[in-house]
Amino acid sequence: MEGNREVKSDVFSMLLEDPVYALQTYNALNHSDYRDPGLVEVCSLERGISLSVRNDAAFILDMNLSVYEHESTVCPNMPLRALIYVTNILEQWVKKQNIYGRKLVKIPTPRFAVFYNGVEDQPELYQLKLSDANPMEEPELELACTVYNINAGMNRKLLSECPVLEQYMMFVGYVREYLGAYPEKDLRKAIDKAIDRCIEEGVLREFLTKRREEVTKVTQLD
Question: Are 216 and 192 contacting, i.e. CB atoms less than 8 angstroms apart?
Fold first, then answer.
């Protein structure tokens, strides 16, 4: 159900809206070593844009536009969705520039990543392309999303270099563990116990302490 996907992604979105966590994730994916979170320009769609057109995290760093999505279900339509997201972001980027003039308008380089942590078995790393929806020999419009499976045992190097992703997965794992322990499937109780355990173990401690109520409201597992 699409609504569930959005609710569950909100915790990921909340994390990546923090420039410190966004920078950490960017460095891990791009093998870079940026140190100043102030360089991160978080992108958010203006009011008036349909709520169906929203991505989990997008930011600009050094003229690179990173568009990140979290998925708990397998979705082959990610390239199409990413195209919609990036089009809306770039529309805002060029709003005050003359795209009909003789001067070349520079845009940041878009890069797309999907972080998968669902229960279905998936490869550790693979690509989805816009042309998958309409195969042709030489597509005039192409967009590729790299999908990273961040479940336990997958993409260990990436997770070791990106504590926020690794700890996010620990939190999700604890919620699933406690949810399975309750015959009544009490999600609220499972979330509370998972948060308590994370805080005790130093897993996303500051984030979960400050935003516990929000996390409890938006966390939902398939």
Answer: yes
Instruction: State how far the Cα of 54 lies from the Cα of 87, in Å rounded to an integer.
Output: 11
Residue 201 CB neighbours (<10 A) = 12
State both tokens at 71. 């998925």
User: How confident is the model over 131-167, as pLDDT tens digits?
Assistant: 999 988 899 999 999 999 999 999 999 999 999 999 9
Tokens 């042309």, residue located: 131
Structure tokens that stand for 214 in this block: 């929000």
d(CA 7, CA 219): 6
Angle at 2 between CA 147 and CA 7, to 5 degrees: 85
What CA–CA distance (Å, rounded) separates 129 from 140? Answer: 13
pTM to 2 decimals? 0.89
H or E element in which residue 192 lies: helix 187-201
How far is the CA of 83 from the CAs of 55, 79, 180, in angstroms?
11, 6, 37
- Tallying the residues shown for the chain, one arrives at 222
Cα–Cα distance, 126 to 67 (Å, whole number): 17
Cβ–Cβ < 8 Å for 58, 67: yes
Count of beta carbons in the 10 Å neighbourhood of residue 164: 21
